Amino acid sequence: MTPILFSNARIFDGRNAECPEGMSVLVEGGLIREVSDKPIKAATARAFDVKGRTLMPGLIDVHTHAYASDVNMFKVEALGPGYRTAHAVRMLGWALDCGFTTVRDVGGGDYSLARAIADGLVRSPRGDARWYEGPGAFVGGLIDEVMRRNGGVPLDDVAALLLTGRRTDR
């Protein structure tokens, strides 16, 4: 994987109120290798001058319902699977456009939507469907897959969520 070098960036790290400007960030192998207020030398990197735009960590939505086009579940059911899928595709694309790189939907999707995401047919946060858990993962056919993907750790608290995110993203 070719390294990526971002220069002239404003950095929001999610921890500090200050957002330093004019920063450089080197990404290698999918991991941030260096952040500096001085230019970074990386001859083989693909370079991007972000012209003062903000770089920040991807957002995580730990409670979403991609199929929920309405709060009335009878209405959602009555619209049919085609409509629900079209709505989910739109919602997942919007989430990605808004900076969400991970979503968790444990009570709304289904295997076919998770598979479409995994196969790259749907623009979605976490396009490999590691975290898109689908049909009420705890009552449907995905429980074994969900538990396998997450090392047997239910994602029902912040610590488990962060641990799983760190484990799967390295």
What are its keywords?
two-stranded parallel sheet; 170 residues; Urease, subunit C, domain 1; alpha/beta; 7 strands; five-stranded mixed beta sheet; single chain; 2 domains
Structural class: alpha/beta
Total count of helical runs of at least 4 residues: 5
Number of strands: 7
Q: Spell out the helices and strands N to C.
A: EEEEEEHHEHHH
Q: Which segments are poorly predicted (pLDDT under 50) over 5 or more consecutive residues?
A: 127-147
Overall shape: elongated
Mean pLDDT metric: 78
Report helical residue fraction: 25-40%
Radius of gyration: 19 Å
The quaternary state of the protein chains shown equals single chain
- Alpha-carbon distance between the two ends: 14 Å
